[in-house]
Amino acid sequence: MDKLVIDGGYRLSGTIKISGAKNAALPLIASALMCGGILRLTNVPWLADTLSMMKLIEHLGLQTQKKDDEIKISGEASSLDAPYEQVRKMRASILVLGPLLARYGNVKVSLPGGCAIGTRPVDLHIWAMQKLGAIVEVADGYIKARCRKGLIGTKIVFPFVSVGATENTMMAATLAKGRTQIINAAREPEIIDLGNCLNSMGAKISGHGTDNIVIEGVASLSSANHRVIADRIEAGTFAIAAAITQGDLTLVNMDPVYLNALFAVLEQTGATIQIGEESVRVFSSSRAKPVDIATQPYPGFPTDLQAQYMSLMAVADGSSKISETIFENRFMHVPELLRMSGDIQIDGRSCIVHGKANLKPAPVMATDLRASVCLVLAALATEGKTTISRIYHLDRGYANLEEKLNKCGAQIERKIG
Ligand code: UD1
User: Fold this and answer.
1) Least enclosed by CB within 10 Å: which of 101, 171, 185, 392?
2) Quick one: fold of 3-19+230-415?
3) CA 57 to CA 35: how far, in whole Å?
4) Do residues 329 and 359 lie in contact, with contact meaning Cβ atoms separated by under 8 Å?
5) Per-residue pLDDT at 117
6) Atom of ligand 1 nearest to the CA of 122
7) Which tens digits make up the pLDDT trace of 233-274?
8) CA 363 → CA 115, 300, 387, 390, distances in Å?
9) Alpha helices of 331-385 — where are they, by DSSP H?
């Protein structure tokens, strides 16, 4: 298995181009199942996860053509069965449920795998499909759903915010009969992007980006071109890399508005943030001050940046509290940071992080996608060589990570093996 060896302690400086958003690309690729024409997506990041989603829709019978950061998807589904071998690698595979059910009236999807960050059930996805009139059965590790005469628009009030369940419901309701209203919808930028793309295909969706989405069902969709939004989590990770190395990074090809919550916190830690139109410069010349955070659905502090932020607080000048409100088991990076001599106590769904002037290099192991990159950040700030194993998690979500960071002065070497 590949490892990263990071010789840390260097200040990063330079410009990094942000890739397209993984979490936007995944539902967009799934939405091609409903298109009926050709869906052309640009700014697609080529990552293990986007390639898995491509493989899944190819398995279902669609044709894909990939060139640079562009993909053209066409054709009709010839299979309505998303098997365990295809789905287990990635939880987002559940996003084929809504499109296949809405378009073909029948679907069988394996219960998903993905990051080990809590139990992560899919009950809300199933419940929403039932509300739209589907008959759903969960047996032998599979979700089987059908609707004889199509889905029927209705009012769906989510008991709590779920990004994936909002996306699945929005896609399914696009081809349902009549009007669907989703209340307590997720407001993430990736939902806005999906709504915009579906509208380009002929859907009638409004309110995406608010917690109240209204969808007037249409009979069919057609060809569209769509550019995937920038990856705000990748950009946020590099912003923290600038702060933790007391460096100076300019991130381009991104939308800074989507990171307001992080930037507000980074400013309090002492970093300077200069917002441009499609760029941001983050620089710092001193050790971070401790600042407490609690993760929240968008527009709050993203759970997908919690681990990276903990690395910054592990070397901050004082103690801070980090609370995780979205996932119940998202502190798997803590034991690894402790191996690097971090001083962190877990207390239920919060951590008390006592910042230390220096961490120490140690062999550490990646446990999920964001935990992996948190270890990269910690290693960048630590003098000496840190070895990170199991980095396949990293490859699921970060395009050319070593290349991008090494161009700015990092010393990261990948050992293939
Ligand atoms: C998406 C993101 C992920 C991010 C998360 C929260 C993608 C591909 N992944 O994941 O990177 O960390 O949003 O911002 O976009 N839940 C249930 N039942 C359900 C669905 C969710 O209990 O049916 C719970 C989850 O276990 C979790 C919470 O709801 O505790 C939020 O999860 P959700 O927003 O659905 O996350 P994902 O869409 O899986």
Assistant:
1) 392
2) UDP-n-acetylglucosamine1-carboxyvinyl-transferase; Chain (3.65.10)
3) 12
4) no
5) 46
6) 23
7) 999 999 999 999 999 999 999 999 999 999 999 999 999 999
8) 21, 33, 5, 11
9) 334-339, 369-380
Beta bridge partners of 226: 41
CA distance 311 to 75: 45
Indicate the helix (H) or strand (E) that contains 120. Answer: none
Q: Is residue 105 a contact partner of residue 142, using CB atoms and an 8 Å limit? A: no
Tokens 């299979």, residue located? 79
- CA of 248 relative to ligand 1 center, distance in Å: 33
Catalytic residue among 115, 351, 374, 408: 115
Determine contact, residues 186/297, Cβ cutoff 8 Å: yes
Query: Tokens 């239920």 belong to which residue?
Result: 348
**Amino acid (one-letter) located at 369:** L
Residue pLDDT, tens place only, 114-163: 445 455 689 999 999 999 999 999 988 899 999 988 999 999 999 999 99
CB 243 within 8 A of CB 312: yes
User: Exposed (0-12), middle (13-18) or buried (19+): which is 229, by Cβ within 10 Å?
Assistant: buried
- The atom of ligand 1 lying closest to the CA of 162 is 34
Answer whether 118 contacts ligand 1 (Cβ < 6 A).
Answer: yes
Q: Which residue carries 């964001």 as its tokens?
A: 370
Q: Compute the residue count for the chain.
A: 417
Contacts with 79 (C-beta within 8 Å, 6 or more apart), sequence order: 59, 60, 61
CA distances to 46, 199, 239, 257, 348 from 72, rounded to whole Å, are: 14, 18, 32, 29, 46
The CATH label, of 3.40.50.720, 3.65.10.10, 3.40.50.300, 3.40.50.2300, for the domain at 22-227 is: 3.65.10.10
Closest CA to 195 of 176, 174, 177: 174
Domain residue ranges in the chain? 3-19+230-415, 22-227
The answer to whether the CB of 128 falls within 8 A of the CB of 157 is no
